[in-house]
Write a structure and sequence with these properties.
The protein contains seven helices and eleven strands. It is α/β, with parallel strands linked by helices and 233 residues long. The strands form three sheets. Strands 1, 2, 3, 4, 5, 8 and 11 form a seven-stranded mixed sheet that branches. Strands 6-7 form a two-stranded antiparallel ribbon. Strands 9-10 form a two-stranded parallel ribbon. β6 and β7 form a beta hairpin. The longest helix is centred in the first third of the chain and has 11 residues.
Amino acid sequence: MEFFADLHIHSCLSPCGDNDMTPANILGMAVVKGLDMVAISDHNAARNLPTAQKVADAYGLLLIPAMEITTKEEVHMLGYFPSVEAAVEFDDMLREHLPAQKNKPSLFGEQLIMDEDDNVIGEEDALLIGATNLPLKEAAARVRSFGGVPVPAHINRGSNGMLVNLGMMPDEPFFPTVEVWRHLPCPFEPLENRHVLHSSDAHYLGDILEKESVLHLPEKSVQAFLKWIDSPK
């Protein structure tokens, strides 16, 4: 079966995300654009996922619970989780590994927690934009310990892409799936025998993908998606 997806979207909980990127607005835009499944993947946090799940259920969309983790090496790695509860538990654990300093909204941006009616119900004061103290290998193992699957984010883009930051794909841990920024070239070798995701990394509503990135899965479920991204190509 074919499903149109955007699997890397930032809500207003990410300091770099526009304040219009509420869970309700993101999922409403996904419906307008004809998507079947989306992943909200905020920087080092999951506090908007419970609200996103309520809205996704109301719209009949599949929400893939996710987070974009910054490793000690400052590599961005997506973690996809089997449930919102698992992602929030991972969030609780990750707090112990965040930078000690607090967020400065005037400098980095607000970090807003929303309800399904676009009301602000909290503001995260931890600095989410910085690197955790977890090395890449340990961060990947931690994602797996919560039932999730780690996927290196935009490996060919920016200082936080794995190929740019490390200059290579490590042999260990092995990542069956990588995310590639489709607007830039990417060497073939790192993609060999791996599944490739193309997502928007949207920080603004207009950047969410149209019906252009398609997944072939046996069913529309988080479990089917996780099994696919964790299986050898």
